[in-house]
Design the sequence.
């Protein structure tokens, strides 16, 4: 714990103007970001008597080792900069709403020649119409299934569409009337786009006119004794009405608004948001956060608005945002929302009528979400704390290991040797700090040498960054999962989360005594003696320590053992995923991949010109020169590369039983069949069946 007076700036040094400030810990990591109308007044509040501070604020200022600030012109600029820094630095003491998933949207890709209806998550793309968000993807699929009867818009992937165009046969939805089959030209591109526009209009709430038109058509068909057509129109109307029932009208004036409610106690807060479009509730979402700083309800609302609209622009920000409490001050936040939308946004508290009644419903949802979360979290917190304490006691550590790193080696019969590093903080996975490695020091299979190399590389980087002289080396790649906040763009010592800058209290390796000894030896060679090491052997789940002849045996019911198993299994999963990815890339290799000077564009042009690698092999150099962009020298190089490679056997598409001319056809068709595996080219060009791949996977560690 640091003494705040040791880094307190002189009062005259702090400007009396708007700005954003950052507190950093002893490792130079940013642990808190805040904004202020007056930096001098706000920062003075942090350096008063510790006894007068809120407990969480006291923890923050005693964890910090320095403070710095940036002056801006207006409070709106301060709000924008604060949001940017929170996203970039991910400070541990700021309010962060935990969104347990990326909420799905119903999307219509109007930017394609044949628009497609699909479920989308993540960042919004230009030219795509979005409806939602929805709480569950199945809710979108149910709605789309009902609407496809009336609006048979394309829903297939690009691979399926391409395959149907090539074979002249539509997919199943085309045969049962739930797709207008533009892939086989049953409908023109213009008519299909008009159908997609009608679909979007219906989803946007313009339903009355369309239903009345269908009812008139049904009546006219009945009058003309076209009873089958009238029955189809009747069923269409019923399907549309059923889809409309899924989005009940709650506001009569076709309001576009987001309603936000907050339920909180001293430790945590839950936020619920209802998205109302055209007077109907189109989606719902919720977040929960720990109150790691002293905040008011207005502050929680402000942070939630930043997270909700920070990446959004245009129509994604509604005309009206209804909240339980206004931020203080409210004008900068309202101006920020207006800038995001491009037109005026009303930010207010509903006082009466239907909107206040709906807000009460949202509030009840928030209260229930908080109760449910606390019911789960109480057990989780207690369990995780007990697990960390048990590990510390079993391994004779001075304190509970709040940060644990686990390493695993993966390969297939000595090929594609890789390693993984996963990180758990406070007993929870921190995927943004996962890392993966390619073993480069030697060839072949040797788990002990591989472990020594990985630990050496990881902690050599730690020492280098600690001394502010480290540079990133090839073969050490970022992990999957959550976005890396700034680590891919910055290497200077500016407080951004570093790749290897933060040390663990405990290193866990997947293996027994040899792997543990290798890890300990690597740390000793680097002069690191304040990090504990242990290994978890799979056979009997024994915990091995360096220089110990006998393992530590934790009880099978031990929460500490369970946590170590979770960490080890996650490292194994991450390593296997990376190893399979590398192997799949190698299997998909082509003889043309290694042709010098032949990039992706010209390689694809050659394949398109001849239709297959098989036909290309039989072509003469003069015929290869006929491909646009291919000169004689390149043609000779291509011919030589194909001559060196063994001829590929015919590939069989397991989805259809059809013999393909070359490997690429099978790969395309497998993709078109929604992931049904076909054959894949092996490392020497021969096709490898799905069964063979499964047999190889069975040999993995």
Sequence:
């Amino acid at each position: 714990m640091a003494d705040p007076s040791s880094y307190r700036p002189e009062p005259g040094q702090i400007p009396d103007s708007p700005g954003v400030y950052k507190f950093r810990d002893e490792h130079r990591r940013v642990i808190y970001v805040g904004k202020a109308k007056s930096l001098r007044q706000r920062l003075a509040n942090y350096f008063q008597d510790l006894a007068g501070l809120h407990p969480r604020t006291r923890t923050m200022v005693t964890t910090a080792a320095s403070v710095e600030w940036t002056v801006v012109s207006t409070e709106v600029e301060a709000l924008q900069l604060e949001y940017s820094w929170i996203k970039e630095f991910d400070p541990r003491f700021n309010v962060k709403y935990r969104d347990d998933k990326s909420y799905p949207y119903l999307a219509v890709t109007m930017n394609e020649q044949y628009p497609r209806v699909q479920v989308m998550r993540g960042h919004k793309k230009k030219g795509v119409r979005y409806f939602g968000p929805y709480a569950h993807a199945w809710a979108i699929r149910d709605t789309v299934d009902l609407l496809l009867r009336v609006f048979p818009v394309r829903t297939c992937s690009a691979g399926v569409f391409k395959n149907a165009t090539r074979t002249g046969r539509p997919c199943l939805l085309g045969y049962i009337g739930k797709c207008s089959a533009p892939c086989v030209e049953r409908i023109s591109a213009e008519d299909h786009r008009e159908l997609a526009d009608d679909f979007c209009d219906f989803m946007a709430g313009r339903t009355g006119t369309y239903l009345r038109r269908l009812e008139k058509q049904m009546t006219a068909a009945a009058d003309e004794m076209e009873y089958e057509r009238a029955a189809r129109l009747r069923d269409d109307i019923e399907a549309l009405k059923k889809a409309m029932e899924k989005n009940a009208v709650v506001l009569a004036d076709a309001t576009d608004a987001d309603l936000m409610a907050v339920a909180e106690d001293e430790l945590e807060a839950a936020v619920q948001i209802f998205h109302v479009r055209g007077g109907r509730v189109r989606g719902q979402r919720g977040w929960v956060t720990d109150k790691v700083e002293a905040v008011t309800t207005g502050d929680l609302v402000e942070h939630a608005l930043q997270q909700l609209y920070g990446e959004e622009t245009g129509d994604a920000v509604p005309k009206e945002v209804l909240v339980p409490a206004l931020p203080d001050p409210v004008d900068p936040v309202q101006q920020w929302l207006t800038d995001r939308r491009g037109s005026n946004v009303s930010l207010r508290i509903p006082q009466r009528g239907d909107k206040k009644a709906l807000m009460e419903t949202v509030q009840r949802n928030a209260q229930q979400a908080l109760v449910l979360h606390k019911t789960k979290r109480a057990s989780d917190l207690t369990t995780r704390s007990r697990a960390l304490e048990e590990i510390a006691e079993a391994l004779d550590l001075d304190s509970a290991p709040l940060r644990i790193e686990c390493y695993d080696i993966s390969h297939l019969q000595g090929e594609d040797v890789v390693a993984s590093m996963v990180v758990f903080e406070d007993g929870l996975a921190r995927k943004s700090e996962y890392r993966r490695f390619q073993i480069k020091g030697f060839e072949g299979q040797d788990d002990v040498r591989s472990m020594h190399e990985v630990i050496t590389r990881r902690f050599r980087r730690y020492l280098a960054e600690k001394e502010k002289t480290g540079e990133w080396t090839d073969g050490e790649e970022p992990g999957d999962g959550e976005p890396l906040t700034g680590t891919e763009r910055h290497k200077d010592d500016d407080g951004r989360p570093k790749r290897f800058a933060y040390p663990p209290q405990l290193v866990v390796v997947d293996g027994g005594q040899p792997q543990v000894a290798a890890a300990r030896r690597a740390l000793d060679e680097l002069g690191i003696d304040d990090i504990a090491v242990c290994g978890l052997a799979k056979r009997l789940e024994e915990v091995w320590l360096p220089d110990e002849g006998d393992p530590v045996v934790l009880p099978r019911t031990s929460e500490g053992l369970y946590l170590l198993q979770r960490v080890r299994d996650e490292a194994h999963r991450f390593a296997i995923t990376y190893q399979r990815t590398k192997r799949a890339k190698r299997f998909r290799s082509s003889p043309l991949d290694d042709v010098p000077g032949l990039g992706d564009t010209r390689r694809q042009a050659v394949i398109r010109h001849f239709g297959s690698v098989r036909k290309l092999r039989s072509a003469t150099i003069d015929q290869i020169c006929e491909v646009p962009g291919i000169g004689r020298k390149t043609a000779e190089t291509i011919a030589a590369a194909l001559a060196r490679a063994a001829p590929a056997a015919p590939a069989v598409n397991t989805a259809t039983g059809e013999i393909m001319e070359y490997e690429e056809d099978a790969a395309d068709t497998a993709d078109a069949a929604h992931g049904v595996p076909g054959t894949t080219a092996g490392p020497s060009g021969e096709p490898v069946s799905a069964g063979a791949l499964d047999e190889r996977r069975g040999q993995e560690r």
Q: What stands out?
A: DSSP finds 21 helices and 23 strands in the chain. The radius of gyration is 31 Å.
